[in-house]
Amino acid sequence: MPVTRFILIRHGQSEGNRDKRFPSHLAPLTELGRSQAQAVAQWIEHRYQPNLVVVSPFTRTYQTGAIIAAHFGIEITAEPAIREQHMGILIGQTWESVRNDPTWDRNRFWLWRPAGGENYEEVRIRAGRALDRMAELQHGRDVVVVSHGGVISALCAHVGGTWEGVRVPRNGGIVIAEHAEGRYKPPIIPEQLSPV
User: Fold this and answer.
1) Angle, nearest 10°, between helix axes 149-160 and 120-137?
2) Which domains occur in the chain, in start order?
3) Is 144 exposed, middle or buried (0-12, 13-18, 19+ CB in 10 A)?
């Protein structure tokens, strides 16, 4: 039975990551982020044969995906449903601002919603539906999906069927999701890439 493999990639370091802030959709990669994207492309080259790169419509994911797509000479396309969690009033604020929110619950982080934004469970639903559509359309192929830390976490919960044990991957982090016979296998987190 053919297996569809999704190589889920968190974008390389962005200016927002560097500054420890929740950035807008326009935040670009840093030089380190570009190096991480190239390292990811080389890692993939030794293990998979992707035919497509799907990216969130944000600048940092598009830039990461473009580096990977150029490495393989393959098509890149945007999928709006795998965009970053909407952080509402926290856009532009520091990561520390989350801990100052009295509604933040580390033990049920997927249900926390920033004012004016969305929670991770909502991200899981929209991004999971997109992954399911891709599994049907890209049957038996290797597909690179470049998105955001929270979205990759949500996709791990979707694929694995639980939020238990879900972690946010680092910039340039990789998760492998396999789909065969109408279902997903538990997500695989390969050995982390060496720091660039």
Assistant:
1) 70
2) 7-137+150-184 (3.40.50.1240)
3) buried
Structure-token pair, residue 67: 């580096």
43-70 pLDDT per residue, tens: 999 999 999 999 999 999 999 999 999 9
Q: Mind spelling out the 3-state secondary structure of the chain?
A: CCCEEEEEEECCCEHHHHHCECCCCCCCECHHHHHHHHHHHHHHHCCCCEEEEEECCCHHHHHHHHHHHHHHCCEEEECHHHCCCCCHHHCCCEHHHHCCCCCCCHHHHHHCCCCCCCCHHHHHHHHHHHHHHHHHHCCCCEEEEEECHHHHHHHHHHHHCCCCCCCCCCCCCEEEEEEECCEECCCECCCCCCCC
Residue 195, pLDDT above cutoff 50: no
Name the pTM for this structure: 0.95
* pLDDT over 90 percentage in the chain: 91
Residue 163 reports pLDDT greater than 60: yes
Question: 147 CB contacts (<8 Å, ≥6 apart)?
Answer: 8, 9, 10, 11, 55, 56, 61, 82, 83, 84, 127, 155
pLDDT band of residue 192 (cuts 50, 70, 90) is low
